[in-house]
């Protein structure tokens, strides 16, 4: 078993999906002004069906899927729960501070309670109280975590504050490895997980986007220090979301969940390097990609131990669980950032 590849995931299926105007200013991967990006019922329906198909494809692989519906029209980006929620070995859950005001309502206590019923959860560490101080760390969007080597790779941005990162790494036992990453026009990469993916035996990364040549070498060396293959992505492949992938564990081996668009952008030798250690599972999510994220952004990996009552059930009994939303009502105190 690899600590990098969870065997269960959490998805949010939205009924009111649309590219979020509050995130468009720093997310260059988000489609603006495109007719298909307008907030229409047809667009929402297409996104809803894409998540449904993703859940079914993952479940068909034997991966346990926790599927939650979201009926709230004020949450256009709720399909990307990895930004506000992450789970960790040892029974720990992290709730993260979000940059866009309209995304903060995505936090849902019913999701946390559902995880508690299915898994052993010891602690829920809520950092959302940092938001009033303008301090943000958008989960496994802002951080790409190497769970085996305990390294948090982070591209600097307004969504990855160093204070919040230090607190997270101290609390969860990671070493931060921070770098500046920009697109060819000099705009910072808004989320680290659009440019890199760390799997058990390989990593996908747009190395040329790292601004400092020295830091570029350091990151590549850390990624490859235990024999992990480092697969360098071009900016065009990053724009196709080839780096926005996640390795998962199925009963028959590890699989790489990646969008069909991202997979199509890979060269044959890159695919061969991936397939040396896991199977590739392409997922078609073109509507959701209009919002500037892809497969990795949609998936919360569940790195928690299942409760004994669910361990021996057949996959059909513990697979897709559809849950209606409730208000997020955890009590937090406002943290002083500085």
Per the principal axes of the C-alpha atoms, what is the gross shape? globular
Strand order, sheet with most strands: 15-1-2-16
For the CA atoms, what is the radius of gyration?
Answer: 18 Å
Q: Give the overall average pLDDT.
A: 89
- Main sheet record: 4 strands, mixed
Q: CATH topology, anyone?
A: L-arginine/glycine Amidinotransferase, Chain A
- Strand % is 15-25%
- Give the count of helical stretches: 12
Helix content: 25-40%
CATH architecture: 5-stranded Propeller
Kindly report how far apart the N and C termini lie.
Answer: 41 Å
How many structural domains can be distinguished in the coordinates? 1
What order do the helices and strands follow? EHEEEHEHEEHEEEHEHEEHHEHHEHHE
DSSP summary, beta strand count: 16
Structural class, by secondary structure, is alpha/beta
Please explain how this structure is put together.
- Keywords: Transferase.
- This is Amidinotransferase.
- With 338 residues, the chain is an alpha/beta fold.
- The chain has a single domain (8-323), classed as 5-stranded Propeller (L-arginine/glycine Amidinotransferase, Chain A).
- It contains twelve helices and 16 strands.
- The chain has helices at 41-60, 109-118, 139-142, 162-172, 213-223, 235-239, 260-265, 268-275, 286-289, 295-298, 308-311, 315-318, and strands at 8-14, 64-70, 85-88, 92-95, 123-126, 143-146, 151-155, 175-179, 196-198, 202-205, 229-232, 246-250, 253-259, 279-283, 300-301, 321-323.
- The strands form five sheets. A four-stranded mixed sheet has the order 15-1-2-16. A three-stranded mixed sheet has the order 3-4-5, with no helix packed on it.
- Strand 7 (151-155), helix 4 and strand 8 form a beta-alpha-beta unit.
- The longest helix is centred in the N-terminal third of the chain and has 20 residues, at 41-60.
- The chain is globular, with a radius of gyration of 18 Å.
């Amino acid at each position: 078993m690899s600590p990098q590849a969870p065997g269960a995931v959490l998805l949010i299926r939205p009924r009111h999906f649309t590219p979020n105007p509050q995130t468009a200013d720093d997310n260059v991967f988000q489609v603006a002004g495109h007719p298909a990006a307008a907030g229409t019922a047809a667009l929402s329906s297409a996104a809803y069906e894409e998540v449904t198909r993703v859940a079914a494809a993952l479940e068909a692989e034997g991966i346990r899927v926790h599927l939650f519906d979201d009926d709230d029209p004020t949450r256009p980006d709720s399909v990307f729960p990895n930004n506000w929620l992450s789970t960790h070995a040892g029974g720990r859950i992290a709730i993260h501070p979000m940059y866009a005001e309209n995304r903060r309502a995505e936090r849902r206590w019913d999701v946390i309670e559902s995880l508690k019923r299915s898994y052993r959860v010891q602690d829920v560490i809520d950092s959302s109280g940092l938001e009033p101080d303008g301090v943000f760390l958008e989960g496994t969007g802002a951080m790409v975590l190497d769970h085996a080597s305990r390294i948090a790779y982070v591209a600097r941005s307004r969504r990855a504050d160093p204070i919040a990162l230090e607190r997270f790494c101290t609390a969860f036992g990671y070493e931060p490895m921070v770098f500046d990453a920009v697109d060819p026009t000099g705009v910072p990469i808004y989320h680290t997980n659009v440019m890199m993916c760390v799997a058990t035996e390989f990593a996908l990364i747009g190395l040329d986007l790292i601004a400092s040549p020295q830091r570029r070498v350091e990151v590549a060396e850390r990624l490859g220090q235990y024999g992990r293959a480092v697969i360098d992505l071009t900016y065009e492949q990053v724009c196709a979301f080839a780096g926005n992938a996640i390795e998962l564990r199925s009963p028959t081996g590890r699989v790489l969940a990646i969008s069909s668009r991202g997979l199509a952008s890979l060269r044959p030798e890159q695919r061969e390097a991936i397939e040396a250690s896991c199977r590739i599972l392409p997922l078609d999510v073109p509507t959701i990609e209009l919002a500037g994220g892809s497969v990795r952004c949609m998936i919360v990996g569940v790195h928690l131990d299942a409760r004994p009552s669910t361990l021996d059930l057949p996959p059909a009994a513990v697979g897709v669980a559809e849950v209606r939303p409730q208000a997020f009502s955890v009590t937090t105190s406002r943290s002083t950032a500085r």
